[in-house]
Amino acid sequence: MTGTTMTPRGVIRVPGMLALMAMSALSFAGFSALVSIVPLWAVRGGSDEVGAGLVNAVMMAATVAVQTTVPAALRRLGWRVTLLAGVVLLGAPSLVLLTTDALPAILALSAVRGAGFAVVTVCGSSAVARLVDAPRRGRAIGLYGLSLSAPQILLVPTSVWIADNVGFWAVFAIGAAPVVAAIPAFLLGRRLDHAARTPEPEHAHTPGSKVWLPLIAPSAVLLTITAPGGALLTFVPQFPEVGGYAVAGLFALTVCSASARWLIGGLADRFGYLPFQPPLLLLGAAGLASCVWAISGGGGAALVIGMAVIGIAYGSLQNVTLVESFAVVGPRHRDTASAVWNIGFDTGTGIGSLLVGFIAAQTSFAVGLSITSALCLFVAVVVLVRILIARRRRAH
Q1: N or C: which end of the chain has fewer CB within 10 A?
Q2: Is there a contact between 172 and 34 (Cβ–Cβ < 8 Å)?
Q3: Which of 347, 342, 344, 348 is nearest to 121 (CA)?
Q4: Which of these, 89, 91, 85, 61, lies nearest to 73 by C-alpha position?
């Protein structure tokens, strides 16, 4: 849809990008406001750590289940209908949460929110690939990432403070922001429905049933870093020994994630997506080790530093794995690539919340985070081996 003469600074001026960014910012404002609050709301209603962990795990499970259906929905219903359904399902349940803190009701409403989140996330990343050409896609993904990260920076670290000092009702009101996103969603959907009438190019280099295979590697890397990310977003307000540093840690995580996701885009366009993955996974492992030390008595400053380091890995790996996903399947399968990438992201977030919550209930949060740190180390080695094998094959 865009020409190859587009300059890097011109990405934001691509028709449809501002509507995409507005829809995404409002949708993620609702998501970000509730990611730490709804588990806390469940605890206030009498749930334990397992119940609190189930909240985001159920939401992510519903998200993953619905994400597999989004490409088909886009083909059958079109972009406008699909996007409008997504933002309403994501935002409206927040108002209902005001009426109950019973765990069964919270889990049911979380599942509905997960269905809406599935639509918004798959459509959002797929729209980037439809609006912006491949040579500038890393920058476009970085810009799109800013629209997701800005509300996270503002709301993830402050939502607990708002709930404590203003009231849970204020956070739940913010959680309904995705309903307002219906306006930019309609505008974006209308543009993409019009563009969808143009025949797609036939030069995709991954045919038919084999389209899923090349997406396994970037999805596995993404899952590896989003598992600890999801655990931290869910449980930092409940960590022992860190006191008021929890808010600072969440702020560090979200700011560093947003900055890294933006800055890595141009580098990925220039140098490729694979070389960055092993060092970023190692960085994530180091940040998690610092968090473990903090909640084992090392002090709140170690938590903030660790979460900042994790944020760099978390944001950067989101960008490079999405660039890889679009690159390995070609333009005809970009909706599928978006769905699979988002499944990896949300599966990791859900597994992280559930696994670390379960382990914490049996042992401690330190043990749970240590396991996710070890996973980062293991996958870093696997990706490094993959790079070396690929270089050896090219050499021969």
Answers
A1: C
A2: yes
A3: 342
A4: 85
d(CA 268, CA 318): 12
Rounded Cα–Cα distance for residues 129 and 284 (Å): 27
Q: Are 280 and 317 in contact (CB under 8 A)?
A: yes
Confidence category of residue 141, pLDDT binned at 50, 70, 90? confident
The C-alpha angle 22, 26, 27, rounded to 5 degrees, equals 115
**DSSP symbols for 50-95:** HHHHHHHHHHHHHHHHHHTTHHHHHHHH-HHHHHHHHHHHHHTHHH
3-state helix, strand, coil split of the chain in percent (to 5) is: 85, 0, 15
Count CB neighbours of 388 within 10 A: 10
pTM, two decimal places: 0.79
Give the C-alpha separation, 271 to 277, whole Å: 12
Q: What's the pLDDT tens digit per position in 15-72?
A: 889 999 999 999 999 999 998 899 989 988 888 777 887 888 888 889 889 998 998 9
Q: How far apart are CA 364 and CA 296, in angstroms?
A: 9
At residue 330, φ and ψ (nearest 5 deg) are 85, 170
Residue 385 neighbours by CB under 8 Å, 6+ apart: none
Q: How far is Cα 3 from Cα 9, in angstroms, rounded to an integer?
A: 14
